[in-house]
Amino acid sequence: MNKKPIILRSIFALLVLVVFVFSMHPLQERDFYDAFKDICSDPSAKEVTELIAAAKEKKAKDPSMYDSVALETAALDKGISLDKLVKPSLVKSQKITNSRDVLSLIRKNSAASIRRGIDLNGGAEFILELVPDAADKEKIEKDFEKYRDLAIETLRKRLTQKNIFEADISPAGGKYISMRVPIVTKDEKAVIEKLIKMSAKLQFKLVHPNNAAEVSKYEADPKGYQPPEGYEIKISTESRNGKAYRSVYIVERAQQMDGKDIEDAYPTMNQFGQREIILSFKHAGATRFGEVTSNNVGRELAIILDGELYSAPRINQAITGGNAQITGSFSREDAENISNALVSGSVPFAMTIQAQSDIDPTIGEQTVRDGLYSGIAGMILVMIFMICYYVRSGIIANISLFVNAVLMLGAMAAFDVTLTLPGIAGMILTIGMAVDANVLIYERIREEINSGKTIGNAIDFGFDRAYSAIFDSNFTTLFVAVILLWQGTGAIKGFAITLAIGVFTTLFTAVFLTRLLFDLMTRFMTIKKLRMFSFGKIPQVDYLGKKKYALALSAILIIASIAVVAVRGKDCLGIDFTGGTQLTFDFAKAVPAETISKLLDEKGFENKVTYKTGSAVDAKKQLEILIREKTGKTKAQTAEQGAQLMNAVSKELNAAFPDAKFKGETQSTLGALIGESFMHSALISIILSFVVMILYMTFRFQFSYSIAGNLVLIHDVIIGVGIYLLLGGQITMNVVAAALTIVGISINDTIVTFDRVRENLKIVKDMSYYDIINLSINQTLSRTILTSLTTIMVLVMQLIFGGAGIRDFVSVMLFGLIVGSYSSIFITNIIISYWHKPVQSVKDIIPDSTVVK
Asked: How open is the CA angle 184-185-190, to the nearest 5 degrees?
């Protein structure tokens, strides 16, 4: 029996659960001003109520103004620094130094705990115009697409640094790009607008040597003042002693140097409690900065970022160390954003927001609801099965599964992870791994009970012997997640974060919590018998003897999968990867997006349908349809061809939905939503995942096992996706997420079999290697069937009731799961039997104390 302190473990488990449940609050957005009052020392103070009233008045005059901007402007007008209204405990704990820190905290407190992706909750679309810098205009216009793609990737990096991985950024024709982000509140949009407008152009300019005298002239007659030739006026805002101040500087128009040679930048606080950004220059930048400072000792040097003067320190001596700092009145959030933008690089464009729209979820509300209900129904079905099959132990497993789901949601909220359909894929894989871990433990306990051990000893040995397989399968999954997080972009990164979180929650619940619950049960209840149902006795099938049939079947399926790709060509790629023609329509009556999409599919138009609403107060909702031809052509279409397509689609829509009165408005050509950079990073991440798994499995098993395991992963993905394509499907982001999930599930199945082979090589002395492999497959067969069966239950429920929006994802998952179960029984073991090394070379990591003599 486990002798570890049960009370301390129970307290620890409860604390972990409470912390993560608390992280999930609130699930919905709160009122911005209510969140402001909550952090004030005296919410009913006259100063607070007047400030809120003034902010609301500004908002009433300009409804497009964000709440945070209204409050900040009202405070500045009244000369109030918001940090003086905040509770002292919060000022200390949150390191609040100015009004912008307060606004950042309010935005954080008013936001929902879990951000949902565009597919589930809609978001915002920004149409950005790229205006080349005058100095580089000719160079940029010669190779505009190259610099446009640079701007897209720079934006993507900035959003990634804000934990927004699921943005859709794509060319929108001409000088425009479209950026869709999973944000819905006005103040989140304000933050994104700042990131967009931040071109990260850092300039160092000298201040006029008689600045004080020039400023006096300016203040005497601000409208009539003319700065000296070659100079311009810059105004800086800062907070001192709880008051907001504006400082005026007369600076040279010509810069002394720029920030293109910055190597690193990071925010910190100086000894006076002011935030500053430390800059580290490359060699060329350090040399130039040394020249500027040595030639201008005694002058003030203005540090200007994107046209805004942050500070103008006096040069006391030459600075040759290659470092500088920007000190200013910015919040922690601003300091982090500026640092990240400087490191990620400037863009040779001024990016202006030409239009901003709110977009509806790309997956319809009914599909989201159906997917949620079908997922819950599937999980309930799994829980019922676990209780029926494992009886009392099944109740413990269900508690563990429920806690796992809660911990995952809490962790997603705590780490600001966006929940998307690929993220849900990661959650499904996590639940599958958690069920798998429980099944492994229970089947081991069953074996120990059948061998004559007491209940207590059977539980001890069951957990000990299942641990290595659980550890290996989860850590290989974690390696994959870390590499996808490192190299992946967009939805791939979101999937990776969810998957990584799931590994830790699974290890906690399956290994720690389940063991704790068993200890509580045996400590406080009299357990004479641990009932479990079974499929019968361990079979004695010669699986390796059927290798000819298995290899022939796999060869046929792989050839068929490759053939279907060759025959269909680009038709295999969904609209995410090809782009197409974007059409917008006005309408009198809205029709569900999924209904429109289904109709257009039937009429031969591959499509992506979205409803969006402009940012203007009186803006109407519009229907937006992205169309790609069945032939898979991706060339820019002429205006005439676009008009013909608009007429054809309008005709079909109005024929099917006459009451909607669809009227075509605009049409334009869009590039692929998934660019070359995404494909490149995804390919690198997948290759690295396989390399790391080969190394790890070589370390834990032997080289032949690692090669066999990874070959089978490729086998499973090719056939799983191939069957889907053979049935008419296309590769979309959902299919990519499903393929990654197949990799995670398949490697788990393989490792469990390998783990049993490794153990049997140690304890079984009178069998050949061939027979040991067959024995191991037969011993783990019940686990393979049970794990696959429980996951299939969830997938079938989602396939039947989950709606069309997730059908491609669920279908690929289902095919991959079936193929993965087949390959873990037949193909992997056939490969290691062919590539057999002497038993003595198999690495033995099982301690002698665990070996049954």
From this structure: 110
Tell me the β-bridge partners of 303. 204, 311
Q: What angle do CA 265, 268, 270 make, to 5 degrees?
A: 125
Contacts with 520 (C-beta within 8 Å, 6 or more apart), sequence order: 6, 10
- Structure pTM? 0.64
Which residues, other chains included, contact 202 with Cβ-Cβ below 8 Å and sequence gap of 6+? 258, 259, 262, 303, 304, 305, 342, 346
Q: Alpha-carbon distance 519 to 460, whole Å?
A: 10
Separation in Å, CA 598 to CA 575, 662, 730: 15, 17, 15
User: d(Cα 525, Cα 519) in Å, to the nearest integer?
Assistant: 10
- For the CA atoms of 109, 112, 114, 117, what is the dihedral angle to 10 degrees? -130
3-state helix, strand, coil in the chain (%, to 5): 60, 15, 25
**pLDDT tens for each residue of 621-660:** 788 888 875 544 444 444 566 678 888 888 899 999 998 8
Q: Are 429 and 502 in contact (CB under 8 A)?
A: yes
Angle of CA points 445, 450, 451, to nearest 5°: 100
What's the token pair of residue 778? 């037969």
| Measured distance CA(805)–CA(464) in Å, rounded | 43
Q: Hey, which residues does 203 pair with through a beta bridge?
A: 258, 304
More confident of the two residues 415 and 301:
301
Residue 239: what are its φ and ψ, rounded to 5°? -115, 125
Q: What is the pLDDT of residues 480-521, one digit of tens each?
A: 777 767 765 555 666 677 778 888 998 899 889 999 999 998
Q: What is the spatial distance between Cα 401 and Cα 432, in angstroms, rounded to a whole number?
A: 10
Full DSSP string of 732-799: -HHHHHHHHHHHHHHHHHHHHHHHHHHHHHHH--SS-HHHHHHHHHHHHHHHHHHHHHHHHHHHHHHH
pLDDT of 240 reads 55
End-to-end alpha carbon distance in the chain: 21
Three-state DSSP string of 834-849: HCCCCHHHCCCCCCHH
Q: Average pLDDT in the 331-344 region?
A: 71
> What pLDDT sits at residue 675?
54
Sheet with 275-281, side-by-side order of all strands:
262-269, 275-281, 323-327
Which residues sit opposite 327 in a β-bridge?
A: 276
Alpha-carbon gap, residue 600 to 585, rounded angstroms: 15
Please report which confidence band the pLDDT of residue 723 belongs to, taking 50, 70 and 90 as the band edges: very high
Helices (DSSP H) in 351-420: which residue ranges?
A: 365-390, 392-414
Would you say 506 and 474 are in contact if contact means Cβ atoms under 8 Å apart?
Answer: yes
Tell me what pLDDT residue 517 has: 92
Structure tokens at 29: 């957005």
